Amino acid sequence: MGDVYTHIGEILARNGRMYPNDVALIERIPAEKKRWSITWREFDERADKFSNVLVEKGVKKGDKVVHFMMNSINWLVAYFGIVRTGAWVVPLNFRFTAEDVKYCCDVAEPKVVVFDEEFIPRIDAIKDNLPTVTDYICVGKNIPSYASSFETLLEGSPATPLNVELTYDDPCGLYFTSGTTGQPKPILLTHNNMLCACITENQHHRQTKDDCFILIPPLYHTGAKMHWFGSFIVGGRAVILKGVSPEWVLEAVSEEGGTIVWLLVPWAQDILLKFDSGELKPTDYNLSKWRLMHIGAQPVPPSLIKHWKEYFPNMDYDTNYGLSESTGPGCVHLGIGNEHKIGAIGIPGFNWETKIVDEQGRPVKKGEPGELCVRGNGVMREYYKNPEATARTLINGWLFTGDMAREDEDGFIWLVDRKKDIIITGGENVFPVEVEDFIHNHPDVKDVAAIGLPDERLGEIVAVIVDVVPGKTLTEEEVIKFCEGLPKYKRPRKVFFGEVPRNPTGKIEKPKLRKKYTGMEEAFKI
């Protein structure tokens, strides 16, 4: 397979050699009371088997393979099997509709589609209109007539390593953005980008061979997988947890000796709500090895972490900031030990550089808001087949994130908001995250989102959608009264009550809210 560490698949091969009999991956399906595991040798051999399957089907370096699966051990087996052929893996969001999948296939032009049996109806609907696809591989027991069985193919395939010449600079993945601000954009990532994620994450969270990473978020997204990469590079085991109820998370930590858990804000809130109500008790679980909880993908209310620390005073905490364009999290992070700055996204990550600029690309004065830019080995190659978007986003090696931020006197960066989510009311800029953070301090608020509503006189007014803690009640008047602590122009003029929609990576889906509450998605946005 070439020289050691010339591509991401070599780390798996090394782990297979060094820790052949140690458990690599555990898969838990609490709803079905199922659990299974594989060792590093088995993981490595299954990935080699799948790479041979693909080569037999004509896949070669530079081809694309669509990967449409739910989280599982087989998800990672397929992933590493694909990248070892030199092909680009194209992981798709499990929430994508058939039309979304077709759009991604039209862009990627894959040779093979690997998919879970639960997605058969979506593939059925589009398979006759995917002209580049020569083979379909289905994971599961119910295999459609046009597809081959993943397990049957693996059983008949040799575990011989391929000898494909790959380098750090070779592309290995085409990741589609989550699409919260429009149609998903395809991001081309390289083996070097992936190695950067391994090193950055390991530096930030000090993973060792003895750590046990509880892996919950969707693997198709760079966030979850790149956090796990920090354990992967040192041969630490991981638990793929299928389901996110507080009970299941705590059981996994307790029974598997979990040391690190990456959560989204709503998941952490759900655990705290169960603790507060007495429905769950921390003392009923063995949580003694749990040393780190970290959150990313969305602004983190300081009140949430203060509450968390009441139950877990000695647990480390970190906030992670990143984008798919930066190969996931870590280009900026709070850093363990910096709890006094919770609310900030933090400081430049290991081997990363940041700057905050104005509309002309000039650095702003400290404390002033501007667009956050990052530079490091994790910056994507390009937006695939979109040179115009690439040219707007990548300038002299800097990735212009589209996020508005400010830097405080201590060098910590505070996220202000997405450029296109800024509410302009009466000529004043209101950053929704500031309103959301303030309202999160209300004890009866479970979640909140702020959007702009069109207004003839002011251009826009601030509106909030509030999701109330179960069993509690709030009125519009009470929310508006609570917000008197905000500057007048930032106070919401309208309050709606309802669920705050978030995508699988935790980001608030603002276009959905604008459409629901204004009848428009982006039309009135400046």
Write the layout of secondary structure elements.
Elements: H1 9-18, E1 23-29, E2 34-39, H2 40-56, E3 64-68, H3 73-84, E4 88-91, H4 98-108, E5 112-116, H5 120-126, E6 135-139, E7 148-149, H6 150-155, E8 171-176, E9 186-190, H7 191-205, E10 212-215, H8 222-232, E11 237-241, H9 246-256, E12 260-263, H10 265-277, E13 292-296, H11 302-311, E14 316-323, E15 328-333, E16 347-348, E17 353-357, E18 370-375, E19 382-383, H12 387-393, E20 394-395, E21 398-407, E22 413-418, E23 423-425, E24 428-430, H13 432-439, E25 445-455, E26 459-468, H14 476-482, E27 494-497, H15 510-518
Parallel strand pairs: 1-11, 3-4, 3-5, 5-6, 6-7, 10-11, 10-12, 12-13, 13-14, 26-27
Antiparallel strand pairs: 1-2, 8-9, 9-19, 14-15, 15-16, 17-18, 18-21, 20-21, 21-22, 23-24, 25-26
Helix pairs in contact: 1-2, 2-3, 4-5, 7-8
Name some characteristics of this structure:
526 residues, alpha/beta, Rossmann fold, GMP Synthetase, Chain A, domain 3, nine-stranded mixed beta sheet, five-stranded parallel beta sheet, 29% helix, 27% strand, globular
Outline the structure in words.
The protein is α/β, with parallel strands linked by helices. Among the domains are: 9-24 and 37-194, ANL, N-terminal domain (Rossmann fold), CATH 3.40.50.12780; 423-518, ANL, C-terminal domain (GMP Synthetase, Chain A, domain 3, 2-Layer Sandwich). 29% of the residues lie in helices and 27% in strands. The protein contains 15 helices and 27 strands. It has a 9-stranded mixed β-sheet with strand order 2-1-11-10-12-13-14-15-16, with helices on both faces. The chain has a 5-stranded parallel β-sheet with strand order 4-3-5-6-7. Strands 17, 18, 20, 21 and 22 form a 5-stranded antiparallel β-sheet that branches. A hairpin with a 4-residue loop joins strand 1 (23-29) and strand 2.
